[in-house]
Design brief:
By secondary structure, this protein is of the alpha/beta class. It has 8 helices and 15 strands.
Length: about 280
């Protein structure tokens, strides 16, 4: 493991949880002799919501909330900023197709690769150090923007691209390359005073934790019997979201699972706001 990643991993092992709404993290010394890192880990109790489709207030307030990087943080809550770190965001194709197409994944025929489940998202190509640096030059501004906006942490989506793009014919991403890009995001988040969450990729929880991720955000771990992969590595510092359209045993069974995260919620798939007919929200 590169020296800077070892340092980041050692730093994160000393991070401790702070109370919700405390506003400041606990400073820890960087073993590499660099500047102290200050970050606040998410609370493990209180009211949690996942608000990527719409940002809104709930009666009684929130203790932990995840919102898109384009949204404002919620007053009085621990705010996690959503960043799509391994694919492009819908509506941002021009940013990448202009002078940055070399940072996008191509298949063996030279065609750009899109996520089949999200056809308006191109897949980023972390295969070389130069490409990773180019990606961070662009998305690093989003991460630092989250810090400037007042978020407490970031979650980096689509870490699991190497599990979905496995053949040169349809686009290939190697696990080591994806983790190397993740390491760059970790370093930048910590330098910006943000905690950083691993998003999904249950098969990589140990490697991701050792790399320096502070907590985890998992979608549908109960549906796929993966919750222990997260809580077994991150302990109570896991934010769990289940969806109404993929709930084999019902939400009561999810809440009764000893491997579930302390903060576990049920949401509608599109994460719409309370005024929409499809809106759903429950918490264990």
């Amino acid at each position: 493991m590169p020296q800077q990643l070892i340092a980041a991993a050692l730093v994160v092992l000393t991070l401790t949880a702070c109370q919700a709404g405390s506003g400041t993290g606990q400073a820890v010394d960087d073993p590499a002799g660099q500047e102290a890192v200050s970050a606040t880990l998410p609370p493990t109790s209180g009211r949690f919501d996942y608000q990527l489709g719409a940002a809104y207030e709930l009666d009684g307030g929130l203790d932990v909330v995840v919102r898109d990087a384009t949204a404002e943080p919620a007053a009085g809550a621990y705010n996690v900023c959503y960043v799509n770190g391994f694919q492009t965001q819908p509506g941002e194709a021009d940013l990448w197709l202009g002078g940055n197409e070399d940072l996008l994944l191509h298949d063996a025929a030279g065609k750009l690769v899109v996520d089949p489940d999200w056809p308006d998202e191109y897949v980023l190509d972390p295969s070389t150090e130069a490409k990773r640096a180019g990606i961070v030059d662009i998305l690093g501004q989003v991460i630092t923007g989250c810090a400037d906006a007042g978020f407490d942490a970031v979650e980096i989506d689509n870490l699991d691209t190497w599990t979905r793009f496995t053949e040169p014919a349809t686009g290939l991403i190697e696990q080591d390359a994806a983790l190397a890009l993740a390491g760059s995001y970790i370093d930048l988040a910590h330098e910006s005073g943000l905690a950083i969450g691993q998003k999904n990729a249950a098969e990589a929880t140990t490697a991701a934790r050792e790399l320096g991720f502070d907590f985890a955000v998992t979608e549908e771990c109960a549906a796929y019997d993966e919750c222990g992969s997260y809580t077994g590595v991150y302990g109570e510092h896991v934010l769990q979201i289940e969806y109404t359209d993929n709930l084999p045993e019902g939400f009561d069974a999810v809440c009764a699972d000893p491997d579930r995260a302390p903060l576990t919620i049920l949401r509608d798939r599109d994460l719409v706001g309370p005024d929409a007919a499809a809106y759903a929200y429950e918490q264990c």
